[in-house]
Structure formats: structure tokens, C-alpha cells
Amino acid sequence: MRIYFAPMEGITGRIFRRAYEESFPGRVDTYFAPFIASGVKKGVAGKDLRELLPEDNEGYTLIPQLLTNSVEDFENTAGVLKSMGYKNINLNLGCPSQTVVSKGRGAGMLADLPRLERFLTGAYDYCEKSGISLSLKTRLGLVEEEEFAPLLKLYNRFPVHELIIHTRLRNDYYKLPCRPEQYAFAYENAEMPLVYNGDILCAADVEKVSSCYPGTKAVMIGRGFLKKPWMLDHDDDQACYARMWTFHDRILELYREEMSGETPVLFKMKELWSYLGETMEQINPESKKQLKVIRKSRSIAEYYAATRIIRNSI
């Protein structure tokens, strides 16, 4: 079964991807870039363009993701991406953020099926003419599980390259349990390749999906990789732990090379530790004190001191 790395806004950018692929080569088959909020007719904003430059993303497969509800914006942005060499694009129909949903984008598009149908008709017409493969990343609906069957029926009408199903409703956000029974429904009724997404937190979870749904094309992992970067490795604990610190040191090095000043670097590393810290505390509860120091650190020196203690204590 193929492994996809989920797009995590503000986290899994080109620096993260480079550091992860160098430290854990070959674990991931395809990375999905955090979404481009395509709301301007100019196409791709400069900061998004930099994140997707082919020369900065060598050595792995990358698929851009768009967040838009405008066919015109979709066409303009998809055209820019194609000119950069991207022939596979993903559409975000799952972001649960209130600021996104209130504008009728992300999971907000699931609220109005006729409008969604018009958008998909325009988007797929453009992709067919342009030689672009368009995949969808969707939630099950907004509020009720009963919303999913009509959604899937709609998706089945289009040449969806693959359907990535996050097995939660929009109102579940990320905290409520997944709803795997709805994926089972899709597995029996979908007319396109499927990708499972939602609470894949260890290798056993991947194996469970593979066993229950052997025809599934891939699993998409996001928070699982952030909490435990070595989650798919089968080496002994010491080797996995050493590799995690190799990844940590590399991404810190790259951020320091890229960013001006310590504050933005610390922000990025603290964001990473908001996930990684959960695992460190499970391994060694005494890490809790140093995790607090990391969260409050105001300099790289303070940060280094705290991480060094954690590194040496496990």
C-alpha cells in the first residue's frame, strides 16, 4: 500500500519535506503540499510559488493542493502549476477551519451540492482539456453522516483521479473519533481509487486499513508522522530514536539557514514540538518539564538546552 504525507498548513513545507526525506528516505511515496488559497486571479502568490519550485523539491513526488470555490481562480492557478511541470493537482474539500468554511471553501463547499457540482464540472472540463489529473480530498460532510452518500454519488459522476477520504465530518474537526464505517460504504460504492485518511498513528493502523480494505490505493498520514516521525520504521528503538534526532537537527539547520533571526525559527520548532512532545512525554514522563521550557524559550540557546536534556534522558 502506498504512503502519502498529508498537507499540514504551516508545517509540511519544502524545508520540512527536504529534512524528512533526507532523514527517512523512501518512507513516503507522495507528499502533498499545504493548500494554495487560490482567491486571486493572478494565480500563485510568490510565497506559494517558492514552496513549489521543482528545483527546491527534488528527490520526491509532490502534488500541490488548491483551496478555492471559483472555477476561474482554479483554472488560472492550475495553469500556472502546469507550466511548472505539475500534471497532478489535489482539491481541498476538507479544511474545517471556520475562516475557510465561512467563505464556502474547503469543507464549506460540501454544504451546497448543486454549487459543488457546477464547480467540479468546470474544474474537470478544464483539467481534461489541459491534461491535468485532479484528485479530491474530502470530509464526510458537515454535520451528519447521511450527507456522505449523496456526496459520493456526486463524486462518482466525475473522472476523479483518486478520492482521499478524511473519515470525519467538518464539525468533528480533528478531536472527535473517526467514522470508519463511512469509509466502508465508500469502499463498496466508489467508482474511483480511494485513499484512507484519519488517525493513522502507527504501522498497525496502516496494516489494519490494508487488511480491511485491500483495494485501497494508499493511506494518507499527517499527525501520525509529526508525533512519531519513525512510525513506519521496524528498527530497534535506539536506531529509530537516533534517526528522529537526525531529522530534528537537519530541519533546525535548514530553518536557521532560511530564516532571519531566531524568533521565526523558534516558532517553527515549537510548532513541531506541539506534536512530537506528545510522544516524548509518553516515552519519558520526565520530559514534561523540558517541553514546557521549549514552549517558553526565547532564544536558540534556551531551546538547545531543553532539547539536549530530552535527548540525553531517553
Description:
Helix content is 49%, strand content 12%. It has a ten-stranded parallel beta sheet. The protein is globular, with a radius of gyration of 20 Å. Helix 11 packs antiparallel against helix 12 (287-296) and helix 12 runs antiparallel to helix 13 (300-313). By secondary structure, it is an alpha/beta fold. It has two domains: 2-227, Alpha-Beta Barrel (TIM Barrel), CATH 3.20.20; 259-313. The longest helix is centred in the C-terminal third of the chain and has 22 residues, at 237-258.
Helical segment count? 13
Reading off the top of the CATH hierarchy, the class of the largest domain is best stated as: Alpha Beta
Helix content: 40-55%
Widest sheet, order of strands: 3-5-6-7-8-9-10-1-2-4
Give the integer mean of the pLDDT values: 94
Which stretches are poorly predicted, pLDDT < 50 over at least 5 residues? none
CATH topology of the largest domain: TIM Barrel
Main sheet characteristics: 10 strands, parallel
Overall, the morphology is globular
Strand runs, count: 10
As a whole number of angstroms, the C-alpha radius of gyration is 20 Å
Query: Which architecture of the largest domain does the CATH hierarchy give at level 2?
Result: Alpha-Beta Barrel
The chain-level structural class is alpha/beta
Order of helices and strands: EHEEHEEHEHHEHEHEHEHHHHH
What's the number of domains?
Answer: 2
